């Protein structure tokens, strides 16, 4: 079965069990599966029970699709994402985005746990993604073109919607949360960066780095979705004073700081028509 047919079959499975049309879909990053503590859960679909859906293999990613309401708005939340470094191809990494597209969801919220390269950041800070640098060597649009997904050569000058960004900044200000803004560099992973690699990323303009987000963002642009990207900074990468870190430390920081992310996203979604 071709990929687009698999997506459509999965979409039909969900549509038969869901009577609402969500205003947004959200994909959570490492350690952020339970970010939305204000989410009223209506249905939970384990990835294992969704037709053709790839399985999340990273321990800190729950692997469930949740349908619920947040601040009076219906949304879909993918608790845990699919990564290139798990061995999945770009096509499967973007399955959640294609599923949202098939369901007619107009807005995509991407969150991730990221290492901070900008030395003005601190662990636990949140960064609004203004732009990204794709250093994975992969692209989900490569290969045979599927016309129903969108144009072959989508413009990438405004991946992250400026209006959504301004709204997020406004909510953060109301909540008295400092919200940085910057450029996210997406790497293949899963090995963390060497000091030399961190220095290179800093030189080319990256403020934060991680192993996700760029595949989904590219697919979302092709799908014509409005995108909001938020990085939770879990550690600081200073090439001149490198400090070792672990996945456990990243997850712990993400869990501790995710309450701020919840407040921003809850307020943001509440302002969505």
Descriptive notes:
This protein has a single domain (20-270), classed as Rossmann fold. It is globular and about 55 Å long. Helix 4 links the parallel strand 6 and strand 7 (179-186). It is of the alpha/beta class. Strands 5-8-7-6-9 form a five-stranded mixed β-barrel. The chain has seven helices and nine strands.
In brief:
With 273 residues, the chain is α/β, with parallel strands linked by helices. The chain has helices spanning 3-15, 90-93, 95-102, 162-174, 195-203, 214-222, 247-270, and strands at residues 24-27, 40-46, 64-70, 73-79, 107-116, 126-134, 179-186, 208-210, 226-236. It has one domain (20-270): Nucleoside phosphorylase domain (Rossmann fold, 3-Layer(aba) Sandwich), CATH 3.40.50.1580.
- Helix/strand-derived category reads alpha/beta
- Unreliable sequence segments: none
Classify the beta-strand content into a percent band.
15-25%
Q: What's the CATH topology name?
A: Rossmann fold
Radius of gyration: 17 Å
Keywords: Glycosyltransferase, Transferase
Family: Belongs to the PNP/MTAP phosphorylase family.
Protein name: Purine nucleoside phosphorylase
Enzyme class: transferase
